[in-house]
């Protein structure tokens, strides 16, 4: 019986199967609709940094064949073979997508699914239909991603812009097609040995590989663009003056070119009687060395003229005179040097360019950290509400409803008595909510059935699917005889806030932490309040301020999180 997934659900692949040779089948259809189903191999920044790992009909496999396109079989519209232990280390995510080829919207699709098969047995299935989408033309159905181990996530996130928007989200771009794309080669043979039989048909071994002709370059797709250096392409100094203008004879050289460029007048400060040609010649040919390989004859030419050493500033790391810089010696202020890239002064100028580094980070995930102090939650992914600290919303998009989340009479009593009362609001709807508080640093922590202890003061938001309760920490020698914290368990994400960058340490038998600086620790760790208060010490004036600490004891693998700040 396969495990059923809903949008936003995640799990370890090892929880589904112990194998690494997987079959991924996608079934998607709609009246009058045509789909292109692809797999993107992304790096750690979720970018398509190598277009050889974009697997689609015109590029059916990766270089080491860790991902292979198998075609339609066993009732699936498209299928892939994924060998996890052959995926190179630079690929950290495989995103399986579907885009519309032609008119239509994803809201028109019939019920479909993405399924995972291992050893001939279906182990996971994510079912979807048109009600989960609206005007999208491209959707990310599911991801394999590496986070300590390989995991699977049911995404179900779409883009209205179709394939173009999908590629830009992954850092690629769409080039204009010069010729129609080659038709996909029909797949022959039955499903591979690791796929289920095709609706009762006996399983057959995978067909022997057929030598492939060199595949044409993918039509319409281009690798990710390199980071822009200039706002306009670099202009190489031409061999002839622009517009076909000829260099006039001396002794009246024109203003063609600036100092340091071939075919120019004498540098600033040069005696005016010295010209390009021979002294006293009635007429002069083009300047020696201009557009010719040999060196000039006669008197020594002006410094830098016709020499193999490039003129200062031309093609060297030193930036050309431009915006925000003093003009070169001898150059008229405000006059652009010929051959200098015209777009260089404007690089990074303008409001749009200045704000580019602060643009929103789209990932298709439920929780996305925009900056170290700002986080975004997509309520449409996962379909479950979020509980957040009251007043922590700084921006939201879409149809989002905020309501008061009461703790009940008993909850208020416990919260007031223990100091672990959380003033929460409930966020529901379809949209994105941006959360922050007091410019503290935010850290999303994903729980996969495990638990974590966090003080209520350090909790910003969490999925409503998580269970939480007040936990008592026993101790002696302190007022009240105990401390309290919040324990969160289940499957979901909790956002912890800290003052400054925290440090995570493993728990050892001699691990102690200040109770005012510790932020969180693993729920399996045993915590004891350690007091260093002694009657003899109290007989003397003064206090160290370190009278009460927390001692942690646990098996290897447990941790504590401490911030450089005491509450």
Could you outline the blueprint of secondary structure elements for this entry?
Blueprint: E1 3-5, E2 10-12, E3 21-27, E4 35-42, E5 54-55, E6 67-69, E7 78-83, E8 93-100, E9 112-118, E10 121-128, E11 138-147, E12 149-159, H1 163-169, E13 173-174, E14 221-222, H2 351-354, E15 367-371, E16 374-378, E17 386-389, E18 393-405, H3 408-418, E19 424-435, E20 441-454, E21 459-463, E22 467-474, E23 482-498, E24 503-506, E25 511-514, E26 518-522, E27 526-531, H4 535-538, E28 548-553, E29 559-562
Parallel strand pairs: 1-10
Antiparallel strand pairs: 2-12, 3-7, 3-9, 4-5, 4-8, 6-7, 8-11, 9-10, 11-12, 13-14, 15-16, 16-19, 17-19, 17-21, 18-19, 20-23, 20-26, 21-23, 22-23, 24-29, 25-28, 26-29, 27-28
Protein name: TerD family protein
Biased composition (Low complexity): 180-203, 231-246, 254-281
Domain TerD: 3-170
What attributes characterize this protein structure?
Trp_RNA-bd_attenuator-like_dom, 4 helices, TerD, twelve-stranded antiparallel sheet, TerD family protein, six-stranded mixed sheet, 567 residues, mainly beta, AIM24_sf, globular
Mean pLDDT: 74
Compute the separation of the termini in Å.
50 Å
The radius of gyration over CA amounts to 33 Å
What would you call the quaternary organization? Answer: single chain
**Largest sheet, strands/sense/barrel:** 12 strands, antiparallel
**Low-pLDDT runs:** 186-193, 198-206, 216-223, 226-232, 234-240, 253-264, 273-283, 336-347, 476-481, 534-539
The shape, in one word, is globular
- Helical percentage: under 10%
Q: What structural category characterises the helix and strand content?
A: mainly beta
Strand content: 25-35%
User: Treating each run of at least 4 consecutive H or I residues as one helix, how many helices?
Assistant: 4
Q: How many runs of DSSP E, i.e. beta strands?
A: 29
